[in-house]
Amino acid sequence: MKITAAVARSLHAPLDFETLELDEVGNDEVRVRLVATGVCHTDALVRDGVLPNSLPVVLGHEGSGIVEAIGENVETVVVGDHVVLGFNSCGACPPCTNGHPAYCTDFAKLNFGGQRADGTTSLSAGDEPVGSHFFGQSSFATHANVAARSVVKVPSTVPLELLGPLGCGISTGAGTVLNVLKPEAGTSIVIFGTGAVGNSALLAAIVSGCSTIIMVDVVAKRLDLARSLGATHIINGLHEDAVARVHEITGSGARYAIDTTGNPLVFRQMIDVLAPQGKAALVGAAAPGTEALIDIGAFLVNSPTVTAVIEGDVVPQTFIPYLIDLYERGLFPFAELIKSYPFENINQAFADSEAGVTIKPVVVF
After folding, report:
1. Which of 117, 152, 161, 340 is the most buried (most CB within 10 A)?
2. What letter does residue 173 receive in the DSSP assignment?
3. What CATH class has 2-167+333-364?
């Protein structure tokens, strides 16, 4: 069938709108008519060649839409279901079978390979293959044949125009807090970066009952939003020594910390703000080869636990409905992070995100 897609053809260039051919839905796939899709920093990193993928490709990995067809092996959804699209996984390796699909041994191939597991692509422009199945979906298109493990059935009580970012950025921030760090009520947490991931972590910290929630950034308007969402303290790293301020606020340092930036200097700050035996999580992506220095002596004395987290270590089929339930009960107001754009303005959505104007752009079809 003919579809319209935003195609990445050249590095550091705007996406091109093209009419492509979408092939037949596979046995283990679901055809989805996209209603909306989030624009994520990871899309920009691939578009610009920081993360590997071959061009041309249709990116997009925070889709939401309605099921139009299912493959013969699919039993999890039916035609007409509302769905959110998350990352793909094999379902058979040890991490998948142990409830950690974000650490699937085939994660890179299934999510960044630009094709199905069998090597085929679902998209073409005439005789030219176009990369598909980015994170199992390639949602920068009006329709997509999506890997069944990327599909999450959601209730129809919440507009699909809001739900796409639950597939990656919002789940990453919230899952890092709720699934990995698991802060106790009354404890302190520092979150570096007030984008969609950082603010989602903030909302999850409120759900967890953290009494001291410190947000660090260099963009004043983003910090103001974080305060309005419930941050107890904000620190502008352009004007303040973030490490000194955290110790001033907390006394002995923070119990928990998150770096959503992937910046080596921020990574070091994340470690340095911790109290003895504190816990920290890196979720921000960086270019291959990026390195950070730490003070080994101080690290030994404080003995922190530092981990990296992919996709919030979530099982999308259970965690996304959980976040929706929190939202419907007024406990997780992630819609405050979203600004909508028509699909034809997707390149503006990228620009606004990179400029810090918009926290979480969502393009609506």
Report:
1. 152
2. H
3. alpha beta
